[in-house]
Amino acid sequence: MDKPKKEPALLHHKPEIRLCLNCGFPNRDSDKNCMYCRTSVVDDAGLISWMRQTYYILRWRWQLKQRREKACTAPKGHLSFLNLLGFFIVGATLSSVGLYWFSGAVAENSFSSGLIAILFLSYGIITLRSLFIKK
Known about the structure:
Elements lengths: L16 E3 L6 E3 L18 H27 L7 H28 L2 H22 L3
Helix pairs in contact: 2-3
């Protein structure tokens, strides 16, 4: 029985971690398929596969660094004007549709339409309330 070839350990010198050559997701050394994209992580040894794996490792680290920097610099709880306007329009639309359907349900004595109208009305009120009340 042939011994499996050792892969170059480029990720913090841990030989038990293997990166997928398709998406760059880190997998355990015992995995045959990537846990993220389900492609095979068993690869050929050679210069080209080593260069490809090195590229994916560097790209993975760069993406993690970008996410970390973006998370640190983004102000929390701050919504832009367009987000506020969008939430306001959605909340007002849901509330007005709920009121319209509720008035129609009361006029027709329809219980199921009334429940749906109350659902729309409550979603609209909750959306509007989340804009104006700070936690």
